[in-house]
């Protein structure tokens, strides 16, 4: 089964977070999110808003386009 766009973006967030040696908790804190929300985002269980994705990009110090390189 093909992953949804939410799952693909979630996997990219997780990949980049791991590359930057950040825990899920660290990234959640930088974004002002609960860890559980970050977990759901990485699993692709939520349809993130653009403003949510912008916060994640800022916290990871990446360009928005990086989330869509799958």
From TrEMBL:
Keyword DNA-binding listed? The answer is yes
Outline the extent of the HTH cro/C1-type domain: 13-67
What InterPro entries does the entry give?
Answer: Cro/C1-type_HTH (IPR001387), Lambda_DNA-bd_dom_sf (IPR010982), TransReg_Diox_bact_type (IPR050807)
Q: Give GO MF terms, alphabetically.
A: DNA binding; DNA-binding transcription factor activity
How far does the signal peptide extend, from start to end residue?
Answer: none
Keywords in alphabetical order: DNA-binding
Gene3D superfamilies documented for this protein: lambda repressor-like DNA-binding domains
Q: Which GO terms describe its cellular component?
A: cytosol
PANTHER family listed in its UniProt record: HTH-TYPE TRANSCRIPTIONAL REGULATOR (PTHR46797), METHYLPHOSPHONATE SYNTHASE (PTHR46797:SF1)
- What is the name listed in the Swiss-Prot or TrEMBL entry for this protein? XRE family transcriptional regulator
Q: What is the lineage of its organism?
A: Bacteria, Pseudomonadati, Bacteroidota, Flavobacteriia, Flavobacteriales
């Amino acid at each position: 089964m093909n992953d949804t766009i939410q799952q693909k973006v979630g996997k990219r967030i997780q990949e980049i977070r791991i590359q930057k040696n950040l825990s899920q908790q660290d990234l959640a804190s930088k974004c002002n999110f609960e860890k559980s929300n970050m977990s759901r985002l990485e699993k692709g269980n939520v349809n993130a808003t653009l403003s949510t994705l912008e916060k994640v990009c800022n916290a990871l110090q990446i360009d928005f386009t990086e989330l869509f390189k799958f």
